[in-house]
Amino acid sequence: MGLPLGYVFSTTTSPQSTGAPQAGQAREYQIGFTLPLSGELSSIGKIWEKVVYLALDDLNNEVKAYGFNVTFKPVILDDGTQDDKALANVQSFAQMGIKVVIGPAASSQVKAVKSFADANHIVIISPSSTAPTLAIPNDFIFRTVGSDAKQAKALATLAYTQGARTVVVFHRNDEYGNAFADFFTRYFSQFNNTKVYDLPYQAGLSDYTSEVNALASKVQSTGADSVVLIAFDTDAANILAHAAGNSVLSSVRWFLSEGPHGAQELLSPTIGQFAQKTRLLGTRPLFVHNPLYDEFAKKLKEKYGVEPTVFCDTLYDAVQLAGWAILRAGKYDGDAIRAALVEVAKHYYGPSGWTMFDENGDKAFQDYGVWAIVKTDQGYQFMDVGMVQGDSVIFTTTPYR
Amino acid sequence: MGVKLIVEKVTKRFGGVVALNRVSINVPSSLVVGLIGPNGSGKTTLFNVVTGYYTPDEGRVLIEGSGRVVDITGWNPNRISRMGVARTFQIPRLIPSLTVLENMLLFYDYGSCASITCSLRRKWVNVEEAAVARAMSILREFGLESIAHKRPAELSAGHLKLVETLRGLMSDAKLFMLDEPFAGVESWMARKLTDTIRKINREKGSTFVIIEHRITELLEGVDYVYVLHNGSLLAEGKPDEAVSDERVIKAYLGK
Amino acid sequence: MIDVLGFLITLTTYIGIYLVLSLTLTLEVSSGITNFGKVAFYGLGAYTGALIGTYLPLAITGSRASPFDVNGIQLLYTISKSNPVLDLSVFLLSLAAGFAVSALFGLLLTYPIHRVGSALVGFTLLSTGEVLRLFYLNTEPLGESKGFMGIPNPFAWLPQARGAEALYLIIVWCFVGLTYFIVSRIMNSPLGRILKGMRDDELVALYAGWPTPLIKSKVLALTSGFTGVAGVLWAYYFTSINPNMFTPSLTFNIWAMVILGGIDSIVGGVLGTVLLASVDYAARFVIPFIGTTLVTPDYLRWIIVGLVMLVVLLKKPEGLAPRRGGVSKL
Amino acid sequence: MITQDLISFFLFSLLYLTVTIPLVLAYRVTKVINFTVANYITYGAYTAVLLDYYMRSSFGHNSLLLTVLSSFAVTGLIAVLSNLAVFKPLAEMRVKGDVLMIASMGLWIVLKYVLYIVSDIASSAWRTNLVSYSQIHYDDISLLTVRAGLVGVQQSLVVFPLLAVASMFILYLVLSETRVGRAVLAVADNSVLASLSGIAVGRVVNLTWFLTAGLTSLAGVMWTTYSGAITPEVGDSLILQVFTIAFIGGLSSLTRTAAGALLISGVENFGTDLLSTYLGLPTSIKPMLTFTVLLATLIVSPPLGVAGGVPYRFTRGARR
Fold first, then answer.
1. Are both C242 and C255 inside the same structural domain?
2. What ipTM was estimated for this complex?
C-alpha cells in the first residue's frame, strides 16, 4: 500500500525493517530500480516498468509458495537516461538503506554509479548494459545479459551465411554502437573476400533523414550488398521508415542487432513491406524455444497488453535473482547478497535462459536467436526463425518464402 | 584649463547617405560654442565622431591641451573620455539600477583600483572615500545633494540632464559636449543649467560645445556659433551675425 | 531507516559543486554576460581533469595500457587504491590545469561575443558548448562515446567510503568559500559598480572611461576558470565522464537557480541553488512511496521542480533575496 | 543521392518555417524567449497519436482535418492558459527578459512531464504503449492522393506542403485582412503606442499566444506522417535547431528567419551527405554543422534585430 507523503519525516514507523519482524507480519525487503522512464530510452523504460511489477508479483508468490514470510517491495526512480541522475538515484537508495539496485539501463550510466556502488557495497544488476569496458572481476556490477562481443560474432556469422560480402555497418555513435561495430568488423573480416565499411550516426536525434541519405550514397559508392544496422528501437524505426522510401537501400539485404526487436513501430505497413522486400533478419540474445520466455510474454500481454521488448527477459530474471539472493544471504547486507547472487545464478533458468555469471559478473552463457518480421493475418509480427550455433545458422522456419 | 578642439574635413557616410560632408571646426580653448542646425543636419553625428562612437570615413579629429596636439581620430570612446572629453546625450542616459551618487562615482577615474586584484585585496577604500567626497562636494556645489541617493527613475528630466553634465566634473573634464541640454526642461531649471555651464567655464576654464535649438537661451552664454545643414558647415560666427545670416534663416524655415 | 549523515554529505556535495557554478554565473550576469554556455567550460574542466587523472598515473607507472580498455581501467583502480601521494598530486594538478584551460577558453570567447546583443551572446556560447560536446564525441584520444573511466578519487585509498566522501565534501566547500570570497569582493567594490553599469548601458560605461571589452574578457576568464574547477571536482567525484553528461540542460538548471535567487544578489543565488538542488534530490525519498502504479510517480518529482520555479518567480519576481541598492559597502 | 537530399531539404524547410515564423511573431508581441515551443510541437504530435489510436479502434479510420483542428485548439488553449497563469502576471511586474525566459523553462519541464503522465494514463486505459508510436497514415489524405492520381506517394510529401501553406496562409489572412490581425502587428511593432491608440493589448496578446501556438502544433502533426517513431522527446530534439534559425533572423525579421530556415535545412541535408561521401566524415557531425553555421552567421553578419543589434557602432576604422 502507498505510504503517506510525510513518510520521510516521520521516523517512528519504519517500513524498512532491519529489526526482528513481529510474528505473522511479513518481513519486507526493498529493491531499488533506476529505470529510463524519460529521455531517449523512455519507450523501452515504460515497458520495463510493467515487467518490474509483473516480476515482483511472481517473485512474491513464488517466495510465499516456498513458505518464506517475506515480501519484496519496489522503489522505482526515473533516471531520464542520464548519468548524473542515475548516480543520484543509487545514492538516495543507499541512504534509504537499500543494498540491491536493478538498473541503470545504459552502460555510461552503469559506469557513473560503479565507483559509488563498489565503495558502499551496493549490488548493481543491469539488465541491458553490454559495454566490454565494464567486464571487470570482483566488483559490485552484475549484468544479466551477454556482452556484445558474442552477439557481434553471431550477427557476422548470420550475415556471411546469408551471402553478405561487402557490408556497410550503420551504427549509433555511442558506447553500445561503437563496441558492437568494432567486434562485428573484426569477426566479419575474418571470413574470406569480405569488405566492411563503417558509418556511425549521432545518437539521440529525433530524425535521421540526412544520415539515411548518406548511407544510401555510401552503399552506392562502395557497391555494398548489405547493411548491418546497430540501433535502439526509436532510431531504428525512424531509419527503416526513411530507408523504405529509398530505392538503393530497398535493394540490399539488411541485418539488425537486438535493439530494435520488439518495437511496435517496426510493425507498421511501411517497415513491414520493407522487411519482406529486403528479407530483413536480426539476432537477439535468446534461448530458442524457451517455454519460459513464451509463458512470460503471454503473461505480460495478458496483464498489461504490451509485447515484451528487448531486455524484458533479462530484467525479469534480474528481479528473480535479486529476490532469491537476498533470501539466501540471510542478512540484508551488500557483501552477503553479492556472494549469494553468484550462487543463486548458477542454478536459475528463466525466460532469458541460464543466468550463471562469469568471473566478471556478466552472463556466462548466451545463445543467440535469429528473428524476422513476418506477415500474418493480424498484420506484421516479430518471429524467432532460427538460432546461431557456433559457425552455423539453423533455421527452424524459413521466413520470406 | 580647457582644450582646443580641431575637426578637419571630417566626412561620415552611412551606406548612400552622407551624414557629414568635409566639416571643419576649430574651437579655441575655454570658449562656450553653439552648434545649431535643423533636425538631421548631422549635429549628433558630429558628436558621435568626435567622441569615438563612430570612426570618420575621411578627415581627422584633434585635441590640443597644455601645448600638446593629440590626434584622437578612431580612438575608442573610453580612451577619448580619459583625455578629458565629457559628453551628454539628447535623451539623458543614467544607469537605472544605480543611484545618482553611484552614477557620479562611475565616472571617477579609479585607475588601478578598478582592477580585479585591487578589489580582492580591498585596497580601494580610501580611493572610494575620496571619490564620494568629490561627488558630494560637486552635488552640494550645485544644490543637488538632496537627490544623491535617488534612482534616475525618480528624477525629473531637468535633474537628469544636470547630473549627466556634472558627471564630467568627476574626472575634471576639459571639453564638455552637451547634446540639447535644455530640451524638455522647465525655464527655471534651464537658467540653473546655464549658470552651471558658465560657472564651470569660468572657474575651471573648460571648453563647451553645445547643441541647442532654443537659440534665445543660447544667445546669452554663447561666444561663437557653427551652423550645420545637410551634413555640411553652412555658416559660423558671432551668435547675432550667424543667426541673422539669411542662408541660416532659410535653412531653418525649410524652403 | 534513512542514513541521514550519508544523505546530508551527498546533498551538500552536490550543492557545493552547483554553488561554484551559480556564484560564478551571478558575477557574469551582473556584468552583462548572458552565459548560456556554462556547460562548455564545465566540460572543458572535467575533460582536462580526466585526461590528467588517467594518462598521467598510467604513464608514471610505466604501463602501456590505454585508459579505454579493460585492463587499463583495472590498473587505474588498483593505482588509486594503493598510493595516496599520486592520487592527491594528480588531483591538485588537474584542478590547476582545469582552471587554466577553461580561463584561456573564456578569454578567447570574448572576441565573438562582445560584438552582439545579450540574447545572441547567450546563444553563441550555447552553440559553442554543443560544438565542444560533439568534439569530445568524435575524438579518439578523448575516448569518443566511451568517455573516461577510473579517474582516481583523491581519497580512494581511504578504507571506508564515508571518510572519503566527507574529506571530498570539505575540499568542494573550500572552493565554494574561495568562489564566494572572490565574487562578493568584486561585486561589493567600485569594479562591481562598473560591471553593473556595463550590463545596464555599455555605452555609458565606455563614456565613463572604462574599456568594457577588456573588463568583460577578464571577468569571463576568471569565472570560466572557476567553472572549469567545478568541472574537475565533478569528474573526480563521479570518477567516470562521457560527452552526454555536458548538455545544455545543466546550464539551464544553474540559470534557474540564479534567477530564482534574484539577479545581482549573491545571497539570493545561494538560496536559489540550495532550494532547487534540495527539492530535486530530497524528492527522491518521498515520491516513490506514493502508491500509484497507474502513473510513474517520478514524473511528479519533475513537475514539482518546475512548479517550484514558477511559483517562486511569480511570488517574488525580483528573487528570493533581492539585493538592496545603496552605495557599495565602505 | 541528391534526389533524396532534395526531398528532405524541401520537407525540413517547410517544417522549420512552420515553427520559426510563428515563434518570431510571438516574440515580437510577447517579448518572451519561449522554450515551451518544444511542448507545442510535442502536444501537436501527441494529439494526433491519441486521436489516431482512438479513431482507429472505434471508427476504423482517422482524419487529418480533425487532427489538425483539435491539435490547434488544444495547443492554443494551453498557450493562452500559460500566458494568463505565468507570463501576463510576470510582465505586469515589469520583470527583465531573462526572468520571462527562465519562467518558460520551468513551464517547459511541467508541460513535458504532464504529457508523459497523460500518455501513461492513456496507455494503461487502452492497454497499449503510447510512449512511442509508429508513423501515422491518414485515410482522408490517401483518398485525396488517390483522387489526385499520385498513388504511392509518401504521405509526408502531401501533408508537409499542405499544412505549411495552410499555416502561412492563415497567418497572412489573419494579420492583413482582419482588424484583430492588424492590431497584432501594431502591438508587435510598439505595444506602448498600440495601447495608446485604443487597442486592447491584453486581448491581442492572448490571441497571439493562441494563434502562434496552434500553428506551431501543426509541425507536430506534420511530424507524425514523416518519422518512423513518435516519442514525447520530439519537440525537445528540434528546439536547438528552431532557436538557431530564430536567432539567425535576429528574433525580429520574418524574411531573415525564413532564409535561416532554408539555410539550416540545406546545411543539414546536403552538408551531411556531401561531407560523408566525399570527405568520409562521419554523419555524426550533423548537429555540429548546424552550430558552426550559426557561429559563422553571427560573426560575419550579426543580425540587427531586437535580440541581436551591436550595442554600439564600434568599428575600428583606418587611422588616416
1. no
2. 0.81
